[in-house]
Amino acid sequence: MAVDSDFRDFVVDQLSAIPVAPRRMFGGVGLFVDGLMFGIIGRSDTLFFKTDDSNTPDYEALGAEPFTYTRGEEVRSMGYHTVPAEILDDPEDLAQWAKKAIAVARRAAAAKKTTSRPRRKSTKIPAKRKAATKKRP
Q: Residue 38 is part of a domain; what is its CATH number?
């Protein structure tokens, strides 16, 4: 079941203080700012925000559950937690929690950049150069 468009519109409206770009993906909706995903609207019309050690205690204190999915017989979790209803209902609180989730997304992106291996340069010769370097009889 796909995300209800009314719920998606409600979430985006509640986040009107932030330039959110919603994108459909995998039956849900990803919430992006500056190309970074900081939130997910799940198939069950549940809002999740990106979490790490800096903001997970806030979610756990209000009984929020981590985002999980099943792959085969294994249940896996991701760095997202449900946004508690009392936060979702207050646009100012929701914006503050979203800003923290955006900061988590930025830190995660920066960490990926520093830990990723540099790309190897291609050893292929471009077609134009290749044609020019062919030996002629």
A: 3.30.1460.30
Contact partners, residue 93, CB within 8 Å, separation at least 6:
86, 87
Nearest of 32, 13, 39 to residue 91 by alpha carbon? 13
Within a domain: 128: no
Q: What is the dihedral of CA 16, 47, 8, 18, to 10 degrees?
A: 20
Q: Which of helix, strand or coil describes residue 128? A: helix
Q: Which domain holds residue 114?
A: 5-118
Dist CA 43 CA 1 (whole Å): 6
Total structural domains within the chain: 1
- The answer to the question of residue 38 being in a domain is yes
- What is the value of pTM for the model shown? 0.78
Q: Torsion-angle region of residue 58: left (phi > 0), alpha (psi -120 to 50) or beta?
A: alpha
Residue 2 · residue 29 · CB < 8 Å: no
Q: Express each pLDDT in 56-97 by its tens digit.
A: 999 999 999 998 888 899 988 889 999 999 999 999 999 999
